[in-house]
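Design job #97: recover the sequence.
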């Protein structure tokens, strides 16, 4: 069981870092395609991911708070997705054990509820006109 946890950890770490590396390459202009080069526009909105790297260039306290908020929302989405995947994997390997299935369902439902809370906060701030 310990070996399976290590394998899951390294695969999840691998699959979470690859998109970040690709997004940073696109943000730097080295991604090729339609977004690369000098003066080109990036095809992806990488504000939440590149924000923490450029926090020293923020002009005011609200800019810093907005930058941190966007980063937390992006990180929360990644963590929720990871927890849903882990819960699904636990359900898959539960072998009909009712206790383990219940634990997996609880993990999945908690991740979805947490994700809905984070997205609702983002939606509320966007609707009332505060652009985080």
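Job complete. Output follows.
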């Amino acid at each position: 069981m310990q070996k399976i946890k290590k394998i899951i950890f390294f695969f999840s770490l691998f699959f979470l870092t690859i998109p970040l590396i690709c997004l940073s390459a696109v943000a730097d202009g080295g991604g090729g395609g339609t977004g690369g080069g000098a003066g080109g526009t990036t095809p992806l909105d990488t504000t939440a991911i590149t924000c923490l790297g450029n926090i020293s260039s923020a002009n005011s306290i609200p800019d810093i708070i907005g930058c941190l908020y966007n980063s937390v929302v992006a990180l929360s989405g990644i963590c929720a997705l990871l927890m849903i995947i882990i819960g699904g994997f636990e359900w898959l390997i539960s072998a009909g054990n009712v206790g383990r299935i219940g634990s997996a369902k609880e993990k999945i439902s908690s991740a979805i509820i947490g994700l809905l809370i984070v997205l609702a906060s983002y939606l509320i701030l966007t609707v009332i006109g505060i652009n985080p």
